[in-house]
């Protein structure tokens, strides 16, 4: 009896140990299954019958272990396949972002393509008072649609800007294309741009229109700039890697202005510009100092240009001449200073045609066509009263060369001097602003002066 009880106790302890080992070391149990038990002796049959339920429990645990391992292996394979699929599809994903004033941007995950679409409009009310009459003019001054981005690499950029406002079209060109160019910026000292864009002549013309401190550009800039042309430009915003202290632009174009069709006299228009920023790079492509520069910032630029045999009265824009083509010389010098919300800009420009006029017969009558030669300058300052409110003022004057277009002489005599100022409210930086200004416009003594007040909303979406 003692032997039987002893054997029974030994068998129970062995079964319990087997159960504990199966529970505590499931992976070992699965990897190394226990050896099959030996057949019990006849005298142990009754005792073995008492532990059969425990043996079945051990077998069930082993089966559960195998099922768990199989499920974990299946999940591991599924995760690996998912990672492989994600790697395979990487680059096919597209991200869309949007922001007020910055439009909608579509960008691929591999950064090989991006496109931003923005719209802009300008609504203006103008009130003019002269000695004899008062007038007002309210209109949608301009409407623009721009798409820009990069292709294949962030260094290969593109920009297309279309214009739809009545003030955006030239008289003899219905094309809505303002800008259309491709640019490669992968080489620091040799960026390359080709297409139609603003020629790199004077800073006050090439800066972004929404960033103007006044509702319109100075009369000297409107008269003597080089506007847009089709051509090729080499440039660098950081020549020699001096932290933006040096920049240059070299441009060669057709010389007849934007998107001209039909045979023209051989150009070209050649422009060379150099700018120095002695205190380092900053954004001088805007009038105001919305960034409130913590340190003084200064940019000084000089430009020279030569337009060979152009048939445009203002070199690259204006009336198209039919009786001849002229050579034009251009020069410009400009300055920008910013510090702690204060901004100052000044510029001088000159344009000289080598021939004052052309004579010929049209329908049996003698006709004379004029070129326009002259020079001008302006000085402008602004100060941020708060982060959103700015005051600004400007003085502007133009001169006509002797023997040039009589209409330019008349313009100088009647409106050659302009002085005024205004108030700007930046609701969303340059992207949404409300502007109001007043200018006193006059010329020679005795000429009719005029008072002009303007209120303008400039909004980019």
TrEMBL record:
Protein keywords: Signal
Keyword Plastid found: no
Signal peptide extent: 1-31
TM region(s), chain numbering: none
Coiled coil (residue ranges): none
Region (Disordered) location: 30-62
InterPro entries cross-referenced by the UniProt entry: Porin_dom_sf, Porin_O/P
The protein's name in its UniProt record: Porin
Organism: Sorangium atrum
């Amino acid at each position: 009896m003692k032997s039987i009880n002893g054997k029974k106790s030994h068998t129970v302890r062995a079964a319990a140990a087997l159960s504990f080992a199966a529970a505590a070391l499931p992976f070992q149990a699965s990897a190394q299954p226990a050896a099959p038990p030996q057949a019990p002796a006849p005298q142990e049959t009754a005792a073995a019958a008492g532990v059969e339920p425990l043996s079945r429990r051990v077998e069930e645990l082993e089966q559960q272990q195998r099922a768990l391992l199989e499920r974990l292996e299946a999940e591991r394979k599924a995760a690996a396949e998912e990672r492989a699929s994600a790697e395979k599809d990487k680059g096919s994903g597209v991200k869309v972002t949007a922001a007020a004033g910055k439009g909608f941007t579509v960008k691929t995950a591999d950064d090989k393509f991006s496109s931003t679409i923005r719209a802009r409009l300008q609504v203006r009310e103008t009130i003019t008072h002269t000695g004899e009459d008062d007038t007002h003019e309210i209109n949608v001054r301009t409407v623009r649609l721009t798409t820009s981005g990069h292709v294949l690499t962030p260094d290969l950029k593109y920009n297309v800007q279309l214009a739809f406002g009545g003030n955006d079209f030239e008289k003899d060109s219905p094309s809505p294309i303002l800008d259309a160019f491709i640019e490669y910026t992968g080489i620091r000292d040799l960026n390359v741009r080709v297409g139609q864009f603003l020629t790199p002549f004077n800073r006050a013309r090439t800066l972004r229109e929404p960033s103007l401190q006044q509702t319109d550009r100075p009369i000297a800039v409107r008269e003597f700039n080089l506007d847009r042309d089709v051509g090729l430009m080499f440039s660098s915003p950081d020549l020699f890697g001096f932290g933006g202290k040096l920049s240059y632009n070299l441009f060669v174009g057709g010389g007849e202005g934007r998107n001209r069709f039909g045979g023209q006299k051989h150009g070209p228009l050649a422009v060379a510009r150099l700018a120095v920023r002695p205190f380092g790079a900053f954004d001088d492509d805007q009038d105001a100092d919305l960034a409130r520069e913590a340190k003084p910032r200064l940019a000084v630029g000089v430009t020279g240009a030569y337009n060979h045999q152009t048939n445009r009265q203002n070199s690259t824009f204006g009336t198209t001449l039919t009786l001849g083509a002229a050579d034009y010389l251009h020069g410009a010098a400009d300055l920008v200073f910013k510090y702690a919300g204060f901004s100052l800009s000044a510029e001088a420009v000159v344009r000289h045609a080598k021939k004052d006029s052309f004579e010929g017969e049209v329908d049996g009558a003698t006709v004379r066509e004029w070129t326009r030669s002259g020079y001008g300058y302006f000085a402008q300052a602004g100060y941020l009263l708060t982060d959103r409110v700015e005051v600004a003022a400007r003085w502007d004057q133009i001169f006509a060369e002797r023997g040039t277009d009589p209409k330019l002489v008349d313009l100088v005599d009647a409106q050659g001097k302009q002085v005024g100022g205004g108030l700007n409210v930046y609701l969303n930086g340059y992207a949404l602003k409300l502007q109001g200004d007043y200018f006193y416009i006059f010329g020679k003594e005795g000429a009719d002066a005029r008072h002009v007040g303007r209120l303008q909303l400039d909004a980019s979406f």
